[in-house]
Amino acid sequence: MTMGVRLLRLATLALSLAAPLAAAEPDSAASSAADVPEPPERHYGLDYRAKFLPAEGVVQMSVKVRQSTALVRSVEFRFDPERYSNFEADGGLEVSGETVQWNPPPRGGTLRYSLRLDHRRGQGGFDSRMANNWAVFRGDDLLPPATVRSLKGASSRARIRLSGPNGWSFAVAYPRSKDAPEWYVVDRPDRRFDRPVGWMAAGRLGVRRDTIAGRRVAVAGPTDQGIRRLDMLAFLRWNLPSLVDIFPDFPDRVLVVSAGDPMWRGGLSGPGSLYIHADRPLISGNGTSTLLHELMHVAQGFRAATDEDWIVEGMAEYYTLEIMRRSGTLSESRHQRGLEKLEQWAAGSESLGTAKSSGARTARGVVVMRDLDRELRERSDGRYTLDDLARQLSQDGRPVSLKRLRALSARLAGGPAQTLSPERLGLD
């Protein structure tokens, strides 16, 4: 074989070996997700079990982590020693003062403890209570807010099961599991560690359900406590569609929990749910509505920045009147009188800057929202209203501050809103 032939064959062999190597290194611009191996799913199971024992005045709680490898390293939370006790766990457990740190075993394990539901709100009634035949509480009570150390990218698949004496039933804002209907699916897309939250009811309950504006609505509460379940459903049938028009991301499910004394005589909202005392009127004398106010908080889904609660509360109260005007629940003249009464009440407010807004400050917040709506309409030639501002605040998921309110208003109005100037708000 001549030297030229030998060199030609070696060159051909080299090219044939190089071709597969080039194919295994595709050009980055032409590659697709299918070319890159998917990382293994990093999901772990969370099973919450709550067993109600009214004769003993406690709820026996367990939190089980289901994992095949050490995805969850530790769960730490602070607790009220007067309500939480008897901590036991698989794996490492340290209870020090008012802090619990639990290190689940790599293959999973269970944390167990006892909970006394009863909790009084200040000097008023209870915002969590278990009696002989019923319990009204927030899912937040079942496990305090926790700090969780887990493998990067790990997230939970959580569910909760509630049990109690014979004849007890349960009302929560979560859907039942299709595969195991005795469990409710706890899914909070904004959290990697899903924790049950929102208002719940247990015991001998009366429950009425309906579908309104495409949302599943339930009104639940203990029997024989004068709860006007059908009245509330009718009220929501009139007004919820207008609320959903403003906030299209309104939850698919909403639970209204109601009870009489000794529960707190007001209203309180939670994720996808709210509580209202059985004696609260659907419409107050000044034309506002506690039920609709708390439903507004469910729709808003945002919280106030420090000392600026008046924005959240003022907007919620403003829309209680405005939504009932749109639905025809209130006439134009009665709607106007309601605003005038709030304007008179607002005169007693010296400053809007406070952590908690109530009374005259909230009334003043309503006046600000009314004036801001007028200014947005005028300066945008009717293209924008307070609805657009409220919708944007609810969608960006950030705490609501005066700075944020001014920035969004300026964007809609084409310049700073005079309604929000320091002089108009009485702020330095």
Main traits of this protein?
alpha+beta; about 30% helix; five-stranded antiparallel sheet; about 30% strand; Immunoglobulin-like; Neutral Protease, domain 2; 9 helices; about 425 residues; six-stranded mixed sheet; 3 domains; disordered N terminus
Protein model, in words:
There is one protein chain. The protein has 428 residues and is of the alpha+beta class. It folds into three domains: 43-203, Immunoglobulin-like; 205-300, Orthogonal Bundle (Neutral Protease, domain 2), CATH 1.10.390; 309-425. 31% of the residues lie in helices and 28% in strands. A six-stranded mixed β-sheet has the order 4-7-2-1-12-14, with no helix packed on it. Strand 5 and strand 6 form a beta hairpin. Helix 2 (229-246) packs across helix 3 (290-300), helix 3 (290-300) packs across helix 4 and helix 5 (332-346) crosses helix 6. The longest helix is centred in the first third of the chain and has 21 residues, at 3-23. It is globular. The protein starts with a helix and ends with a helix. Residues 1-39 have low confidence and may be disordered.
Average residue pLDDT: 88
Count of DSSP H/I helices:
9
User: Sheet with the most strands?
Assistant: 6 strands, mixed
Measured distance between first and last alpha carbons:
98 Å
Beta percentage is 25-35%
Number of strands: 20
Tell me the helix content. Answer: 25-40%
Radius of gyration: 28 Å
CATH architecture of the largest domain: Sandwich
Tell me, briefly, the overall form: globular
